[in-house]
Amino acid sequence: MALNDEIADARRVIVTEGYDMSIGEIINLYRDNELQINPAYQRLFRWDPTRKARLIESILLGLPLPPIFVYQRDDGVWELIDGLQRVSTVLEFVGILKGAEGLALPGSRLEGTSFLPSLYNVGWEPSSPDMDDGIGTSLQVQLKRARIRVEILKQESDPLIKYELFQRLNTGGINLSQQEVRNSVALMINPQVHSALIGCAESPLFMQVIDQTDVAIERQAHVELAVRFFAFRNVPYTQKLDVHEYLDRSLVELCTSQVIDLALEVNAFNRTFSLLAATLGNSAFKRWDGNAFSGKFLMSVFEVVALGVSRNIDAIEAMDSELRTEFLRVKCRDLWSKPEFLSYSGAGVRGTTRLANLLPIAPGYFLP
Q1: Model pLDDT for residues 254-263, shown as the tens digit of each residue
Q2: Nearest 5°: phi and psi at 269?
C-alpha cells in the first residue's frame, strides 16, 4: 500500500473536533460526572506543590495553556486522555477532585511564586471563617473564565485510537516512562491484565532474578520486562516495528485478545522465573566472563533465556534437580560462545535487528 493510501486509511479511523472552553465549564462537567478521570490514574498525578502553584499562577496571569484531549463515549461523557496534571491541579485547588473512594479530596493550598509571592498558603476558600487566606471571589471568577482548548476524539473513531493517542501524547514526556504509559493504557483497556502484569512484575522471585536498580524499578523497568515476556510468547515480532512500538501493540493485543489464556501465561511466568531463581539466581541474565556470571543485567540474555526456558518449561522441570541446574548453567554459559548470539547481542546492534534474530533461536536452544 502506498504511503498516501496508508495516511488516508489512518485518518478515516480518527474523528476529532475541538473548541475552546472556560475552566469553569470544565469544573462543572467534572462536578456533573460528564468529564471522567479514572481514579486509578491519580497515582500518576505527580506534580509537586511548586508546579501546581505555577499552573494557577499562569491562569491568573492570562498565559495560554496547552490543550487537553478527551474521548467522547457513546453516552456523551468525556474521558480525559491527556491533561491529567493540569485538570487535576485545578480540581484539587477548587476542592472537588475525587479520590479512589469517590470522595472529594481536601482543597490544596498554594506556594508563592516568583511573580505572585502572595499566593503562599492561599486556597480556593479561606481555611476558616476568620482567616483571609482564600483567593477571593474576583480571582475565582477570573480563573473560571480563563479558557483552554479541548480536543475531542469522537466515538466514531476506532475504539483503540484513544489508547494510541494517550501513548503518543505521553511517551517521551518528562514525567512518564514508556512503560508507565503502557501501564496506564493496560489499565484503560483491561484492568485484569494490568493487575496480572503488575503482580508478576512485583513477585519477589522475579525481582531477584532481574536484579534491577532502584532507579530502574522506579521507572517501571520490571513491568516492561514482564510485558516483554508475555509479548515474546504471544505476539510474533515484525522487524519493521520499533521495539517499543512492538511492545505497545503487544500490550493492546494482550488486553483485547479472546484467544490468549491469561491464567496459563501467568502460570508459565511464575514457573519460568521460579526455576531460574532456584538455579541461577541473579546471575541468570548476566554475561559469562569465562569464569563466572558477572556484570549488569543484559536485555539480549533475557530475551533468549526467558523465552527459551518458558517454551521448554515442562521438559526442564521434569529433569533431575542437579541435572536441571547443570543444564541451565551450561546453556547460559555456552550462549556466549554461539556465533548467532554474539553477532546480534552487541552494544551496536539495533533492538529491531536483535529481536528479529535472537527470538527465533531461543526455543530450540533450551530444548533438553
Answers
A1: 988 999 999 9
A2: -60, -50
